[in-house]
Structure formats: structure tokens, C-alpha cells
Design goal:
Helix content: 25-40%
Radius of gyration: 21 Å
Strand content: 15-25%
Structural class: alpha+beta
Strand order of the largest sheet: 6-5-7-8-13-14-4-15
Order of helices and strands: HHEEHEEHHEEHEHEHEEEHEEEHEHHHHH
Shape: globular
């Protein structure tokens, strides 16, 4: 039996099949930049367990969004270390303090890959905070999570909806001591593509800290690729200029399965769904100059957790339909560009690929990004308002 005969391009690379194989006949290997299962025919006994635990084949129970909030943590330290409003970090802190729980999330490896790890201390939380715009490896933690749950340990798992589907398929049963937080996912690019890109930029095999979002006085959203190492001057490249970021934002480099993702909808698989707020500007008067998260408590368990932690946030109850409409991946998967056909079969440098797909970065864009790093955001906005008044007169 070859699981790929049944799954093909719908494979999400979660590794649930490899974890569940009783004969250890399945290994996860890179193909076209992504992990896929390969089967050792000499070990395979065709039991079919791999397909029974495959989220690409099965459909887990999902629940409709019934309520929505925009929120930002009151804790400045948590806010500064979070991508948006600090919701995941606050949930994790709550679980660590109340249950002495184990938290599972995505972390950078020393060689510029991303994989899910387990932590059980607040001081380790920074490892799994922040956006990682690349696919994270999950197969190594699934068996560990199962053992923890069996022994009654509380576990908080954060990941993409398909990763949560994979975990649930692997576990086979529901656990009241497991809380799953799914993120609104636009698609996952290739780990190998990003790894090669960072190695080229840093001229190193590892050792640099990688950040995809920065939050400072110049830009509260901070879509930048930042590479830093010790006391060396950090390398900051705007998402509008960096080729990997440009290809990611415009949907060119996602895993094939992402373009037909059955979880990119308002029916959610996690207990709580979180994501960037797509309508921050409408709430700016009540939550000024803060990067906001949207929170969708989904299940009864998720709603109970939100009720207990919401005191840690400045938050607003908002119209769920307006927020869903502001985030397209809550209604449909990302659209597959025709150029995706050659992206991973080409040997072209990533800069040339970005130029081929999106054109050159114009001097106007370069100048705009330079200005953004000189004039703080609040001053820029005041300047724009003043110019509009003058022009209006």
C-alpha cells in the first residue's frame, strides 16, 4: 500500500501516517521542498491504519463561528513579544498557571527550519510566540502529546487547522484535557525554500534569530523579515521587498494542498480560532494604535476559556460576519496562481522567481519603505491627514 496513491496532492505533510504505522514502514522525506510520506514496501503489511488517520482523507467534526471579538492584551511585555494582540500567549500563560500544562507550538530550529515543540515553563514561551510563515513539522510531537494526555496532563496545542485535524485523527479519541487553538491560515510555503533563502542572506548554516513580524514605533504591523545574531546589527528587509515574503503574501509558494484546503472556511476545527484583525482601522478610536487579534471562541470548552481569560484583554464584541468577510481564508482557500506550476520545479534563484511572477520592486516602493523606517507611524498618519486637508482646500 502506498498512502500517496490515495492522498496525492491533498497530502498536508503532517506525518500522522508515519506516527501511526505499527511497522514503522513510513518515513517523511522532502520532495519539491515539502515533506511527504514514503512507504517501505518490505515493511508495509497493508493494514490501512495510515489512511484511517489521514486528515486529507477523513473529515473531523467542525463547528460554525457563533461569536467574535477583537482583543489586545493589557500586558505590555506580552504585547511586545506577540505578533498581534497576544491572545495565544495569554491562553498559554493561563494554562501554565492554572493546570501546570504542557504547551505545544511552532519554534525555530538552529538551522532555519520550524517544528512543533513542547514547553512547560513561562520563560520558554518566547520560543513558540510570533508568526512563522512556513510549514512546521509536527510528526515528532504527536506521540508525546498522546502519552501526556493519557496520563491526565493538560495540553494546549496551537497550529493550523489541518495540523489540528491530524492530531485529532492520530489521537483517535477526544480528551477533555486538550485545548486546540487554530490560526487563520492562508497557506504554508516550503521549509526548504525558506531555509535556503535565509542561508543565502546570512551566509551561514544556522545561528541567526529569524522573525517575520516586528512591532515598533515605525510600524505596528511590521511585515518584515528580520535576521539577528547577538550584538551584530540586525538585517531588516521589508515584506514588500524580500522575495520570499512577496511570493508568500501573493500565494505563489504554498503547498499544493493549501489551494484546495477544506478547513479554509467558517466551520472551525479548533476550540478557539485566532488571527490578525482585518478591520483594525474601524476600531482605532476605541483601541488606538494597537495591533489587534480577532478571537473566535468555537466550542463550549473554548468559550469557557475565553470567559476566564478575557479580563486580561482590552476587547470589543464585534460582528462576526464583518470579521469573517475581512479575512478571505475564513470563506475559501487561497487562489492558486498559474505560475505555481513552475515554482518548485524551477532551479531559478528566489529573487528571479519573485521578479518573474511579480515584476521588479519599483523605486517608489523602495523609497516608501525607507521613509517608513525614518518617520514613526503616528507622525506619518498625522502628516497624511494634514496633507489631505491642505489638498482638500
Amino acid at each position: 500500500m502506498n498512502i500517496m496513491d490515495d492522498v496525492s496532492e491533498h497530502c498536508i505533510g503532517c506525518g500522522a501516517c508515519a506516527c501511526s504505522c505499527p511497522k514503522q514502514a513510513i518515513n517523511m522525506v522532502f520532495k519539491d521542498g515539502f515533506l511527504y510520506p514514503t512507504v517501505d514496501k518490505n515493511k508495509c503489511v497493508e493494514c490501512g491504519i495510515c489512511l484511517k488517520e489521514c486528515p486529507a482523507v477523513n473529515r473531523n467534526e467542525c463547528y460554525e463561528i457563533s461569536e467574535a471579538y477583537v482583543a489586545v492584551t493589557k500586558n505590555d511585555k506580552v504585547y511586545e513579544s506577540s505578533t498581534s494582540g497576544g491572545v495565544f500567549a495569554e491562553i498559554a500563560i493561563y494554562f501554565l498557571r492554572k493546570y501546570s500544562a504542557v504547551i505545544c507550538g511552532a519554534a525555530w530550529t538552529s538551522d532555519y527550519m520550524v517544528e512543533h515543540i513542547l514547553i512547560d515553563k513561562e520563560e520558554e514561551l518566547n520560543k513558540i510566540q510570533g508568526s512563522k510563515y512556513v510549514q512546521s513539522r509536527t510528526d515528532k510531537v504527536f506521540p508525546e502529546i498522546k502519552e501526556l494526555l493519557k496520563f491526565g496532563k493538560h495540553v494546549l496545542f496551537s497550529g493550523t487547522p489541518c495540523q489540528i485535524a491530524a492530531l485529532k485523527d492520530f489521537l483517535k479519541e477526544s480528551y477533555c484535557n486538550l485545548l486546540c487553538v487554530d490560526i487563520v491560515c492562508h497557506g504554508v510555503p516550503s521549509p526548504q525554500m525558506l531555509q535556503n533563502h535565509i542561508k543565502k542572506l546570512t551566509k551561514s548554516e544556522g545561528g541567526y534569530n529569524v522573525t517575520f513580524r516586528t512591532k515598533d514605533k515605525y510600524d505596528r504591523y511590521g511585515f518584515n523579515l528580520v535576521l539577528s545574531q547577538g550584538t551584530k546589527e540586525k538585517m531588516l528587509i521589508s515584506g514588500n521587498i524580500d522575495p520570499y515574503f512577496r511570493l508568500f503574501i501573493n500565494n505563489y509558494i504554498f503547498r499544493e494542498a493549501c489551494y484546495s484546503c477544506k478547513y479554509a472556511c467558517s466551520m472551525r476545527i479548533g476550540d478557539i480560532t485566532i488571527g490578525d484583525c482585518g478591520n483594525s482601522e474601524i476600531y482605532i478610536e476605541r483601541l488606538p494604535y494597537r495591533t489587534l487579534s480577532t478571537v473566535y471562541p468555537i466550542t463550549d470548552r473554548g468559550k469557557k476559556v475565553w470567559e476566564e481569560i478575557k479580563v486580561s484583554f482590552d476587547f470589543l464584541t464585534v460582528n462576526k460576519d464583518i470579521e469573517i468577510a475581512a479575512n478571505s481564508q475564513l470563506t475559501r482557500p487561497s487562489v492558486r496562481p498559474k505560475e505555481r506550476d513552475f515554482i518548485y520545479s524551477s532551479n531559478e534563484d528566489i529573487s528571479l522567481l519573485a521578479q518573474r511572477c511579480l515584476g521588479k520592486v519599483t523605486n517608489r516602493i523602495k523609497m516608501k519603505e525607507r521613509v517608513k523606517r525614518i518617520i514613526p507611524e503616528k507622525k506619518r498618519k498625522r502628516l497624511v491627514r494634514t496633507l489631505k486637508r491642505v489638498i482638500g482646500k
